[in-house]
Amino acid sequence: MLELNKENFESEVLEAEGYVLVDFWSQGCEPCKALMPSVHELADKYGDKLKFAALDTTKARRLAIKQKVLGLPTIAIYKDGSKVEEVTKDDATVPNIEAMINKYL
């Protein structure tokens, strides 16, 4: 799981070829922290097919807003630098995230 920040987001996500899953989370978001181990398991399961990355929005608030992340947790899939789909807040469940991943494999 790649740790994203303001410095590497553009090169690792927006300029990346293929699919990248980004877990937008923050230290103060309990649902985010509860979901994180499951997202790491999905990274172990599908990591050879798409890139998995996480961005702590506490340290990159403007970047999150620019990416239209208005609620947490948000799990987004990017293809060739463009956001193609996301699940957010109550919809960010492991079955929904896995279903979204499978659409793009």
From TrEMBL:
GO terms for molecular function: protein-disulfide reductase activity. The record marks 30-31 as: Contributes to redox potential value. Residues 1-105 form the Thioredoxin domain. Disulfide bonds join 29-32. The active site is at residues 29, 32. InterPro entries: Thioredoxin (IPR005746), Thioredoxin-like_sf (IPR036249), Thioredoxin_CS (IPR017937), Thioredoxin_domain (IPR013766). The record marks 23 as: Deprotonates C-terminal active site Cys. PANTHER family: GEO12009P1. Belongs to the thioredoxin family. This is Thioredoxin. It comes from Gemella haemolysans ATCC 10379.
